[in-house]
Specification:
single chain, about 190 residues, alpha/beta, Rossmann fold, 8-stranded mixed β-sheet, two-stranded antiparallel ribbon, 5 helices, about 30% helix, binds guanosine-5'-monophosphate, purine salvage, Xanthine phosphoribosyltransferase, cytoplasm, Xanthine_PRibTrfase
Length: about 190
């Protein structure tokens, strides 16, 4: 998505060889117009699918996910993160190792908010090693829901996540695909036509 790639070029900051900071438009300060354009694009990409709900993980998935849900006219559910957990049986739970924070969190969704048979679109801000999406896949599976695919704002193709999801047959649609960070610059997989 051209608009997003341009924004990454102007406002993204590369940290080392693996991390991109986008906290001035995506995950701390948020640009609603850009989020809305991205939500519309996710809805367009998955237009042929029947989707009942959008599922994401707090906090940085929420902004793009809510606009995708708005465009699809369905509810959005976000998994909550907890570091420690006393299990009550009311929640679906998965473990997610955070690549940027180097810690494991539990993510949980109240069982009332995903019903068996529902068709879910997963959304996240980044695809790195695929742990966040894998956690959402586990929750969907435990709930007896079907995942129609994963909509990712920024995919880093040089990390393991994409291969992991391809192996599991999960459809992945990414709005920007980054192949490398070179000398503090972002290298995109291809120039997006849209
Ligand atoms: P994964 O679970 O695919 O390994 O990593 C995805 C999660 O880690 C995302 O939800 C995102 O919050 C965080 N993340 C991964 N890579 C980056 C990055 O380069 N920049 C930022 N800001 N977050 C990232």
């Amino acid at each position: 998505m051209k608009l997003l790639e341009e924004r990454i070029q102007t406002d993204g900051r590369v940290l080392g060889t693996e991390v991109l900071k986008v906290d001035n438009f995506l995950n701390h300060q948020v640009d609603p117009a850009l989020m809305q354009a991205m939500g519309n694009e996710f809805a367009r990409l998955f237009a042929t699918e029947k989707i009942d709900k959008v599922l994401t993980v707090e906090s940085s998935g929420i902004a793009p996910a809510v606009f995708a849900a708005l465009a699809l006219n369905v509810p959005m559910v976000f998994a909550r993160k907890k570091q420690s957990l006393t299990l009550s049986g009311d929640h679906y739970v998965a473990d997610v190792y955070s690549f940027t924070k180097q810690e494991t969190n539990h993510i949980l969704v109240d069982k009332r908010f995903i019903q068996p048979g529902e068709r879910l679109l997963l959304i996240d801000d980044f695809l790195a090693n695929g742990q966040a999406v894998a956690g959402m896949l586990q929750i969907a599976s435990d709930a007896g829901a079907t995942v129609v695919g994963a909509g990712i704002v920024i995919e880093k193709t040089f990390q393991k996540g994409r291969a992991l999801l391809d192996e599991q047959g999960v459809r992945v649609e990414s709005l920007a695909r980054i192949t490398a960070f070179e000398n503090g610059q972002v290298v995109f997989a291809d120039e997006s036509p849209v």
